Structure formats: structure tokens, C-alpha cells
Amino acid sequence: MRKSPLTITAVLSGILAMATANSLHAAELKVIAGGSMTAAMNTIAPAFEKATGDKLVSHFDSTPNIIARINSGTAFDVVVVPVDVFKDAAAKARFASGPTIDIARVGYGIIVRAGAPKPDISTPDTFKKALLAAPSVAFLPASAAGAYVIKVFDRLGISEEMKAKIKVQPTPAAIAPAVAKGEAEIGVFLTNVLIAPGVELVGPFPGDLQQELVFSSAIAADTKEADAAKALVDYLKTPAARDIIKAAGMTPG
Q1: What is the pLDDT of residues 181-199, one digit of tens each?
Q2: Which residues, 6 or more positions from 176, have their beta carbon under 8 angstroms from its beta carbon?
Q3: For residues 161 and 11, what is the distance between their CA atoms, to the nearest angstrom?
Q4: Sign of CA dihedral 86, 59, 172, 244
Q5: CATH of residue 77
Q6: Which residues of the chain fall short of a pLDDT of 50?
Q7: Residue 253 CB partners (closer than 8 Å, separation 6+)
Q8: Domain encompassing residue 146
Q9: pLDDT confidence of residue 26
Q10: How far apart are the C-alpha atoms of 62 and 36, rounded to whole Å?
Q11: Disulfide-capable partner of 127 in 10, 121, 175, 216 (CB 3.0 to 4.6 Å)?
Q12: 8 A C-beta contact, residue 193 and residue 172
């Protein structure tokens, strides 16, 4: 049976009203995330936006810059950041009370240019020799991961020798290209950002020198989008998001 023009108009009006209601309730979430979460979060964002209608506006940065950004009063709704951020008392005060939620973790490794000889880094002693033999090392010192790498240099007793070798990179994503182009002989950082064209992973840090950096989420205490922010945190724990995190070279949770 053919629907009357009045019936069709009513249906279209209902659809328009629903669309308008959804758009009115859509949130724009300001997200601050660690630089090493860039690939995972940029892949998760479209799926979350499609599922919820909300929009993510993300800022990726190093740990010191994230702490400075939060402490300067910059508005945000959710963070997915290295746990080191929560050790800063002033930054921690800007988060809603309650436990943080671990989203991803990843360990450390070394890369060389594709086709280059791979040094033996199977033990702390051979790892130390490989670092001392490399004329240049690309990484990002001013970050949570970089701070740990420097601690490893200290533990190995080679801090002074490494200072002259360090080729500071502006972002985690710049480390692999620097090695691929021959600007540094090796790259040292979180393994997920070292997986890139033109380089090869030598291996992880050996023995008890290995450690995982954990990225955790929290909601801003003063967010006006608490429900949407919680929805994002919940979404980051779904099987779909976990698969994306795995594909980005990280371990979920």
C-alpha cells in the first residue's frame, strides 16, 4: 500500500528530529596522549567516532610537555599517557578521583638501518659493547621512555660516553627515519615506534634491563563531557581497540 504524502513527511520529520538530537548530544573530546600512542590512537579514533558520534581532538606529546600542558591549565577531557605523568602531584590533581585505567604497554629495543650488520645485544655486557661501538644513537631523551634509556646508560656505567653519541629527535616517530637515512647508526626507544620502513629491529633490551612503559587513561576532574569521556575509556578496553593496539606493536592493558 502506498503511503500518503502526509505519512512520508511525518517519517522524514522523525528521522530529521533524531539526527538533530544525536548531533546536539555529540561531544568533542579533547584528548592528550603520549607520543608513542600516536599510531594506535589515530586508528582507534575513526572507529570510536563512528560508533558514538562523538569527535576526538587529540594532542600527542612527550611526558615533560604533557605535564607542563596539564599544569598550565590547558583544557582537556581524557588522557592516555605514560604512568610517569601521574607521579606529578600538580598534574594528578587535575584528574577525577579514582584509579587510572591501564590501556597499553610496550618494552624497549634497538634498531639498525635495513641491511646493516646487527650487533649482539643478547646480554647486558654485549649490549653495553654495542652501545659503545655505535658512533651515533637516535632517541628522544625528554620523554618517559628517554628517561628510562638514560637510566640504562647509568646502570651500564656509560653515561658520559653516550652523551657525545646522542642524536636527539623531535618525536618518537622521527627515530626510525633518522636511522633509515643514516643520520644515526642505531635507534633506541620503545619497540612499537621502531617498527618502520628502512630499519630492522635488532632485538629487545636484554635481561633485567628490559622494562615496559605503561600508558594509562584518566578523565579530567573538570570535564563537561564526563559521560563521553568515560565512553572513550571504556572503548579503549574493547576487543576492537585491543586489536588495534596489538597491531600497533603494543600489548593491551
Answers
A1: 999 999 999 999 999 999 9
A2: 111, 187, 193, 194, 195, 196, 197, 198, 199
A3: 74
A4: positive
A5: 3.40.190.10
A6: 1-3, 5-24
A7: 102, 103, 104, 105, 237, 242
A8: 108-209
A9: 83
A10: 8
A11: 121
A12: yes
Same domain, 52 and 32: yes
Q: Are 158 and 131 in contact (CB under 8 A)?
A: yes
- Give the model confidence (pLDDT) of 144-182 as tens digits: 999 999 999 999 999 999 999 999 999 999 999 999 999
pLDDT at 9: 46
- CA atoms of 237 and 253, how far apart (whole Å): 8
Contact 230, 54 (CB under 8 A): no
At residue 115, the pLDDT reads 97
Q: Are residues 122 and 169 in the same domain?
A: yes
What are the grid coordinates assigned to 4, written together? 500518503
In terms of domains, do 87 and 117 share one?
A: no
In this predicted structure, what is the pLDDT of residue 123?
Answer: 98
Same domain for 228 and 181, yes or no, is no
Same domain, 189 and 130: yes
> Do 96 and 160 share a domain, yes or no?
no
Close Cβ partners of 95 (under 8 Å, ≥ 6 residues apart):
79, 86, 218, 219, 220, 221
Total domains present in the chain: 2
DSSP assignment of 210-238? --PEEEEEEEBTT-S-HHHHHHHHHHTTS
Rounded to 5 degrees, φ, ψ at 61 are: -160, 175
Cα 83 to Cα 214: distance, rounded to the nearest angstrom: 6
Q: Domain check: are 24 and 95 in the same one?
A: yes
Cβ–Cβ under 8 Å, residues 252 and 106: no
Tell me, what amino acid is at 208?
D
Query: If we measure between CA atoms, which residue out of 134, 187, 192, 123 comes closest to residue 158?
Result: 134
